[in-house]
Amino acid sequence: MKTINKKCKITALFLAFVITSSLFAAIPSTSLAVNAIEFNGVIKEIISGLEYDWIDGFSGGMAVVLIGDRENGKYGCIDKNGNVVVPLEYDWVYKLSESLLEISLGGKCGLIDTSGKIVVPCEYDAIGQFSNGMAWILKDGKYGYIDETGDIIIPMIYDKFDFF
User: Fold this and answer.
1) Would you call 145 helix, strand, or coil by DSSP?
2) Whole-number Cα distances in Å, 98 to 62, 125, 140, 142, 147
3) Phi first, then psi: what are they for 104, rounded to 5°?
4) Whose CA is closest to 25, among 4, 69, 55, 1?
5) Which CATH class name applies to 91-164?
6) 100-105 and 134-139: which strand pairing?
7) Of the residues 18, 26, 58, 110, which has the fewest C-beta atoms closer than 10 A?
8) pTM for this predicted structure
9) CA-to-CA distance for 31 and 27, rounded, in angstroms?
10) How far apart are the C-alpha atoms of 38 and 22, rounded to whole Å?
C-alpha cells in the first residue's frame, strides 16, 4: 500500500465500487477530508488529506471532485496525485469519455478535454452521449449534432433527435 500523504488522518464512512477490469472507489465523507482509494484486486494507493466534499472514482487517471454542497458547490477534476487538472469552477462535471468531459456553467452545457481546455463553450441547453463520433445537442428547443471536436455536423433545426 502506498500512502501519498502520510501526515493526514485517513477518514472514510463507506466504500462503493463496481466490478470492472479496473476497480475504483469513491469515498463520501461528512468532513472536508476525503480519501480516494484505487482498487485492482487489492488496495494500491491512498490519497489522503484532500480538501473536497465529494470525490468520484478515478477514470482515465482523473476523478471529478466537489467543493461545497451538490446544489451550490463547484466541480472540477484532480489527477491521482491530487493535482487539479480541471479548475473547480463548474456547476457540474460529467465524464463523457476518456478524453471529454461535459461541463455546466450558468445553466448551459459545454465540453472540455481532460487537460481543462474548452472544446465547446457552455452555450447549449443539453449535450447527449457520444455515439459513432457524434453527440446530440439542444439549444432553444432545437436539436442537432456535434462531433468530438465541437464542430456542428447536423444543424440545430430539428424538434426531435435519435441515436446513430
Assistant:
1) strand
2) 9, 23, 29, 28, 15
3) -135, 135
4) 55
5) mainly beta
6) unpaired
7) 18
8) 0.68
9) 11
10) 9
Residue type, 131: S
- pLDDT tens-place string over residues 28-54: 444 334 344 444 444 344 455 558 898
pLDDT in tens, 93-112: 998 887 899 999 999 999 99
Reduce the secondary structure of 64-111 to three states and give it as a string. Answer: EEEECCCCCCEEEEEECCCCEEEEEEECEEEECCCCEEEEEECCEEEE
Which strands make up the sheet holding 126-127, listed edge to edge? 126-127, 134-139, 142-147, 152-158
Domain-by-domain residue ranges, the chain?
Answer: 1-90, 91-164
Q: Which residues pair with 78 in a beta bridge?
A: 63, 84
Q: Which amino acid type is present at position 119?
A: V
pLDDT at 15 over 90: no
pLDDT digit string, tens, across residues 109-160: 999 998 889 999 999 999 999 988 999 999 999 999 999 999 999 999 999 9
Q: Which residues pair with 108 in a beta bridge?
A: 105
Task: Say if residue 1's pLDDT is above 80.
Answer: no
d(C-alpha 126, C-alpha 89), whole Å: 19
